[in-house]
Design brief:
Order of helices and strands: HHEHHEHHEHHEH
Radius of gyration: 19 Å
Transmembrane segments: 39-59, 71-94, 100-120, 163-184, 248-266
Strand order of the largest sheet: 1-2
Structural class: mainly alpha
Keywords: Membrane, Transmembrane, Transmembrane helix
Helix content: over 70%
Number of strands: 4
Strand content: under 5%
């Protein structure tokens, strides 16, 4: 399954370093539940960005060589970049209220990493520019700060977007897990492009996340049951239409049930952030 060990080492080293940064953040910071919510939301935001530039525009390509299959290899690189390196750093910056100088320093750090990875041949740009990485990463750090402020104020719109981001993060990781276990594959027919597979997975995950976010706010058991049943029929139709390849839709049904059950939990965590903030100011 695995090959190209020299390609994966830089990715693994960064994984270790940023995991240590995350552990330090949770060890030293207060209000850990708020940080968990912000982290999952930040990951969801990063995934949305990745979907646009990788899945639809295909502006660059990850080459960690973790998997022989190109799709899984690119996804593994995207997960590390958008769910680990940048979000873990953003959480660290927001948790300790670090200033713009630190934000800019980390933005230059990620721009340098990108240049280094290109030189090493483990990341390939198409129409992407490293200066985009510098500017967008810096802005992302500021978005993380402002996002937490809005959550503490109980902003309804941001709360709903946060729930969607958390649903998106959860859904996509479940789907990727099925793909890595070779239980699920997206694409029309036997011969489909890598870009098409990215687009189909992205669209499917987005549909799942919107549906699960909506049903969470309905607070209706009947609606939740109908969503799971309706989604099962939809998946069956996709399978029969050869748009997804899966021996049985049962794993996806289980994921749907799990995510529907997680929705109220996530919603409560999001609501608790304002309550904690109000309690600390009394």
């Amino acid at each position: 399954m695995f090959f190209g060990k020299s390609n994966r080492y830089p990715y693994i080293i960064l994984l270790i370093l940023h995991t240590l940064l995350l552990l330090f953040t949770f060890a030293k910071a207060q209000n850990r539940k708020s940080l968990i919510v912000l982290l999952l939301s930040n990951m969801g935001i990063a995934y949305l960005f990745e979907y646009m530039v990788l899945s639809f525009l295909h502006l660059y390509r990850y080459k960690p060589k973790f998997f022989k299959k190109n799709f899984l290899d690119e996804i593994s690189g995207a997960i590390l970049s958008q769910a680990v390196y940048v979000p873990f750093t953003a959480l660290f910056i927001t948790a300790f209220r670090l200033n713009w100088v630190v934000k800019l320093g980390f933005a230059f750090y990620f721009a340098f990493i990108e240049k280094l990875f290109i030189m090493m041949g483990i990341f390939k740009k198409r129409r992407w520019k490293t200066r985009y990485t510098l500017v967008l990463t810096y802005l992302y750090f500021h978005i993380s700060d402002q996002w937490l402020r809005f959550l503490k104020k109980g902003n309804s719109f941001i709360q709903k977007l946060t729930l969607y981001n958390m649903m998106q993060f959860t859904c996509i990781n479940f789907l990727v897990a099925l793909e890595m276990l070779h239980l699920l594959s997206f694409g029309r027919g036997k011969h489909h492009s890598l870009m098409e597979q990215h687009k189909m997975e992205t669209s499917y995950s987005t549909f799942m996340s919107i549906l699960k976010t909506w049903v969470t706010y309905t607070r209706s058991i009947k609606a939740k049951v109908l969503v799971v049943i309706g989604k099962s029929v939809f998946d069956y139709a996709l399978r029969k239409g050869n748009l997804i390849k899966i021996k049985s839709t049962i794993p996806i049904i289980i994921i749907d049930i799990i995510v529907v059950c997680l929705g109220p939990v996530y919603k409560k965590w999001i609501g608790d952030i304002k309550q904690v903030e109000e309690g600390s100011t009394e």
